[in-house]
Amino acid sequence: MKIALTGIKPTGILHIGNYFGAIKPALELTREYETRYFIADYHALNTMKDPKELSACIREVAAGWLAAGLDPERVIFYRQSSVPETFELAAMLMAFTAKGLMNRAHAYKAAVQENTEKNDDPDAGINMGLFTYPVLMAADIILFNADVVPVGKDQVQHVEMAQDIAQAVNFNYKTEVLKVPRAAVRESVAVVPGLDGRKMSKSYGNVIPLFAPEKELRTLIMRIVTNSQGIGEPKDPETSQIYLLYKLFASEAEQKALSARYREGGMGWGEAKEELFRVVNRELAPLRERFNAIMGDPAGLDAVLSRGAEKARPIAAATVQRFRRAAGIG
Ligand code: TRP
Question: Does the active-site annotation cover 199?
Answer without folding.
Answer: yes
